[in-house]
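Students often ask why inverse folding is considered easier than folding. One informal answer: many sequences map to the same fold, so there is more than one right answer. In these notes we will look at a single instance of the problem. The structure comes first.
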């Protein structure tokens, strides 16, 4: 039930965002009762997951965001009498070390599973040795959702095959939702991952194109994600990928709180109706240079993990892509540089879903917490989970290209060799191995000096080629102009890899 306290001494306005055009319209409300009825009507129409309430002039008043409880479309009953839900939470740019450093309450909430007698048999699996593929999100998400690894084809981006994960359950009657803290009119997040963004398009064209892609990805609802556009607009930015602001807030509330609240509300509603779901929440608060802002998420995420403890028949994955790639900690310290390639990965299996697995698989999941893994193992694990939940889904076989990484189609459900090293890991260069002793300082600088001469020569040739092509008028310039030919002066701290495990 909606309750309103009228503290407005001016005209009330209700703002709604049209799902078809993503434009906001405002209507005056003659009373609080009229406002409540209007909001209730919006709930049962197609909406963006939230509305805006403004006290005062429709042009210059102060807005309040109100999340709208979701209303679900009818779906066929899932054949499984005891369906298992899949719940995934992704934090951008947070290393494993930084997770425990700045999210202590969330870590404590995870530990609390073990001390809660009602959940003493829940498996909280913390994979300590996750090797990142690259300090950029795209490669990780492509590997996790599609099992695709390309270590050489730089900056050629394909659509992320989200339907490979959402589709098998969506198509048998599961409700699916994706929520993130980015504006879908900008080249980031799902807009980028579905290859929607085109700077030549207007906002309306972009939004319509984006909406057409959601059902193809088997995403039923985008939650209240669009409110991120309102939030960033108030800061006069397109995203929060900078450290200009220690906090990102709207009307006195953290931006991320709106999304966590909606995510929780969505799951509560479906649990109440005994309807199965696949949910995905992405947070990019740490995508900035200080490494501090992500600490603002701790209270909300800890509260959510306490709620997640009570979710029935729900497998939860909490993971990241890489550490902070933008901080002085990375630039100035060797520890920071290694952390950039050490994400975290948690898998939570409540007792009421463990019937899906045999003892050998459970044992492998436990043992692999101390083994070197990548999110390519995570992809094959996810494929097996989908098969366990819906036996009609045929899990993906290992691609020929991926066999070089010593993965199997069973992912973490098969014991990984303790002899595995970074030589078996998908790593797009530049990349640092998280294992101690794998990379050591070279004692043979003569060999590397020859290599340096060769590659610097290639750079000089490229400079000459560019100048030979001429300036904007097409006139050939030639030579190095005012620049000197590049030369190798000194070599320092040359690191070489060893195929050993520590």
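Output (designed amino acids):
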């Amino acid at each position: 039930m909606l309750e309103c306290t009228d503290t407005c001494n001016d005209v009330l306005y209700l703002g709604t965002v049209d799902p078809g055009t993503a434009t906001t319209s405002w209507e005056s409300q003659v009373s609080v009762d009229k406002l409540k009825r209007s909001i209730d009507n919006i709930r049962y129409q197609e909406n963006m997951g939230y509305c805006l309430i403004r006290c005062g002039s429709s042009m210059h008043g102060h807005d309040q965001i109100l999340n709208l409880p979701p209303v679900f479309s009818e779906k066929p009953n899932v054949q499984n009498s005891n369906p298992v839900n899949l719940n995934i939470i992704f934090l951008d740019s947070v290393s494993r070390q930084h997770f425990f450093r700045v999210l202590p309450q969330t870590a404590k909430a995870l530990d609390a599973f073990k001390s809660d007698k009602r959940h003493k048999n829940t498996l909280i699996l913390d994979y300590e040795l996750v090797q990142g593929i690259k300090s950029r999100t795209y490669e990780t998400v492509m590997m996790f959702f599609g099992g695709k690894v390309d270590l050489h084809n730089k900056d050629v981006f394909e659509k992320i095959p989200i339907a490979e994960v959402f589709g098998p359950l969506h198509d048998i009657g599961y409700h699916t939702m994706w929520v993130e803290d980015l504006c879908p009119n900008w080249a980031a997040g799902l807009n980028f991952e579905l290859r929607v963004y085109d700077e030549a398009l207007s906002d309306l064209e972009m939004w319509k194109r984006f909406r057409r892609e959601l059902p193809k990805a088997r995403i039923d609802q985008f939650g209240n994600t669009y409110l991120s556009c309102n939030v960033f607009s108030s800061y006069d930015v397109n995203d929060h990928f900078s450290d200009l602001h220690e906090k990102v807030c709207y009307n006195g509330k953290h931006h991320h709180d709106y999304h966590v609240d909606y995510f929780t509300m969505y799951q509560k509603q479906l649990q109440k109706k005994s309807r199965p779901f696949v949910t995905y929440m992405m947070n990019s608060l740490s995508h900035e240079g200080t490494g501090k802002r992500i600490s603002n998420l701790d209270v909300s995420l800890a509260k959510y993990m306490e709620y997640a403890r009570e979710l029935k028949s729900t497998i939860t994955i909490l993971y990241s892509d890489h550490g902070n790639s933008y901080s002085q900690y990375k630039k100035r310290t060797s520890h920071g540089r290694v952390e950039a390639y050490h994400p975290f990965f948690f898998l939570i299996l409540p007792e009421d879903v463990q019937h899906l697995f045999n003892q050998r698989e459970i044992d492998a999941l436990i043992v692999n917490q101390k083994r070197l893994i990548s999110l390519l193992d995570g992809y094959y694990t996810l494929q097996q989970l989908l098969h366990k939940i819906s036996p009609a889904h045929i899990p993906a076989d290992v691609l020929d290209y991926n066999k070089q990484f010593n993965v199997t189609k069973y992912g973490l459900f098969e014991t990984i060799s303790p002899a595995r090293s970074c030589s078996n890991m998908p790593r797009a260069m530049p990349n640092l191995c998280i294992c101690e002793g794998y990379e050591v300082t070279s004692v043979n600088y003569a060999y590397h000096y020859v290599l340096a001469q060769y590659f610097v020569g290639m750079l000089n040739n490229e400079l000459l080629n560019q100048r030979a092509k001429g300036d904007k008028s097409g006139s050939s310039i030639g030579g190095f102009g005012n620049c000197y030919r590049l030369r190798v002066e000194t070599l320092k701290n040359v690191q070489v890899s060893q195929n050993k495990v520590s």
